[in-house]
Amino acid sequence: MKNKLSIVLMLGITLSTTSCASIFTGTQDSIAFSSNPEGAKVFHKGIEKCTTPCTTKIPRGLGKQMIAFEKEGFEKKEVKLTKTFNAVTLLNIILGGAIGVGIDAATGSLTKYSPKKYDVELQAKPE
């Protein structure tokens, strides 16, 4: 009976630790945006997220993530968000194996955004 209980307990621990990065760090990051001049609209994937200065949540993804800043009378400015490896994913390699790493990859949790603050200088449109 003790062996069965130990097996069930170990199985439960193993299953609960898969996709560690998704569970512990989530699937999105809060990022602060500011612009000079202030009042630029911030867009991610064509969806308006906020108006500078602001902080908003951006979902993580494996592909290139671009942010656009738009303000009337100024040139549109696009910025690529930079990412770094999410070290919590290492727990999956040790504990969760391929399933956990696969889940983290699918949710974008293998990486995290760094830096968490972007400042842009907008250029006035020529008259």
Dominant shape: elongated
Number of continuous helical runs: 3
> Strand sequence of the main sheet, in spatial order?
3-2-5-6
Helix content: 25-40%
Mean pLDDT: 81
Protein architecture, described:
This protein has 127 residues and is of the alpha+beta class. 32% of the residues lie in helices and 35% in strands. The protein has a four-stranded antiparallel sheet with strand order 3-2-5-6, with no helix packed on it. It has a three-stranded mixed sheet with strand order 4-1-9, with no helix packed on it. A hairpin with a 6-residue loop joins strand 5 (66-70) and strand 6 (77-80). Residues 14-19 have low confidence and may be disordered.
Q: What topology does this entry show?
A:
Layout: H1 2-17, H2 20-25, E1 28-36, E2 41-44, E3 47-51, E4 54-59, E5 66-70, E6 77-80, E7 83-85, H3 89-107, E8 111-113, E9 117-121
Parallel strand pairs: 1-9
Antiparallel strand pairs: 1-4, 2-3, 2-5, 5-6, 7-8
